[in-house]
Amino acid sequence: MQGMEAYWGRRALEFVDAIEASPTSARVVSLFEKMIGEFGFHAYIMAGIPTCGQSLGQLTLANGWPAEWFELYNRSNLVAVDPIPRHCQHTLNPFLWTEAPYDRTDDRAAHGVMTRARDFRLNEGLCIPVHYDDAVGAISLGGERPYLDAEAKSALHLMGIFTHGRLRSLMRPLGGTAARRLSKIEAEVLSWAARGKTAWETGRILGLSERNVRWHLEEAQRKLMTKNKTATVAAALVNGEIML
Amino acid sequence: MPEIHVVRKDNRHLYATYFDPYFRLRHDIYVKQRKWMALDRPDGREIDQFDTEDAVYLFCIDNGQLIGAMRAVPTVLPTLMSEIFPYLNIRGPICRPDIYELSRVFVIPERRGEHAGPRVETLLLTAIMEYGISIGLTGFSIVLESWWLPRFERCGWKAHPLGLPHMMDGMSVLAVLVDCDDLTWTSQCNQSGLTRPTLTWHGLEQVRRRALPDIFLPHAAAFQPAQ
Lengths: 244, 227
Known about the structure:
The complex is a heterodimer of chains A (244) and B (227). Chain A has helices spanning 2-20, 25-38, 67-75, 83-88, 108-118, 150-170, 184-194, 199-206, 210-224, 229-238; strands at 43-48, 60-64, 95-96, 124-131, 136-143. Chain A is α+β, with helices and mostly antiparallel strands and 244 residues long. Chain A folds into two domains: 2-170, 2-Layer Sandwich (Beta-Lactamase); 184-238, Orthogonal Bundle (Arc Repressor Mutant, subunit A). In chain A, helix 1 (2-20) packs parallel to helix 6 and helix 9 crosses helix 10 (229-238). The longest helix of chain A is centred in the middle third of the chain and has 21 residues, at 150-170. The termini of chain A are far apart. Chain B has helices at residues 16-33, 80-83, 120-135, 149-155, 182-192, and strands spanning 3-7, 56-62, 65-74, 99-107, 139-145, 159-161, 166-168, 171-179, 199-200. Chain B is globular. The longest helix of chain B has 18 residues, at 16-33.
């Protein structure tokens, strides 16, 4: 199999070179869709895995799911019962959808998601977990009968991770003009807290004193009526006042 | 704040007392905790064929205690990638004076993910970039577990894959080449709030070093509270 591996290896490296040279997210996404199409995947999503109170929509980096499936998935809050995102919390390695464990007789909700996905020609898939210190995300690819031998999986893993990274770095300047209760500086301080920065670190980053940073955190806490920094960050994320 | 010391053959004698605890820590972390049993040795120290006098170490020392470290080996000499995992690199062997290979990057468990001051992990990653630009390196090759990549991306490290990931002892592992440049270092410093270089060059006054770029804090004025 040395031959196949060298083939997919080269294709994957060429792909990464091409997306690194792509100046826009749209270009990166179109290269990615074309590439995974060659492996028989017609759908994909790259998103953070929502925790209590967050919605998938807010955490989505790139959405290539069938529109109706995405809508159904959100409306019925299937993320809460889907065994695939659940399994991402327990593994660092890519896995096939069939490898995400659930009790096929007792866990009917989980079984329901897997069955309903088939209505959208999402029969088989590969999921690549993305782990940070403070959050977990995933890149999930689905298709009818995708090509999934060891070399293909390995190539898709590499391309998935680098596409995800490239999209994140292209989207880094955070926008967003939703109605906010927080001042710009409070949101800024909270976003750094959400990324795990201490008050001291945030102060250094923003050129403020540690005391000043703590003051803004307190103000944000007062406005969002929360009890501590963690709860304030959670509330601000859910409200869309900050983004990760 | 912990200090990060450059330790190499020209000043190694100044750090003689640190090497025994260093190799024991490596044994604790890589053999006992992570179960890389191929590295096991009866004397409880983890030392391999790349711990030569040409290896450069960064020791992170806090109040006289070693709390983290990293090893850099010149790629003109044998490395993990060239000797043990050549199949991870399909772009062609790396053997260049301006590229070093990083390995054995660790922080002792008690000091991981701290919430006071800058994180030790971040300090080490910033410090090796400072070392690289100081001595004129352009890149670092690394064999690493794939799940590290998003963290690299987040801290501003630009990694280029050298081949496909492989499963090894239940973990996905791959080889990358990371750019070593001024921009990466300055953005790392900005992100972790460092306003001055972090390396201690004890006993290395003779080493010729390139000037470091200015570290500045961007946008400080733009984030004044909105009235």
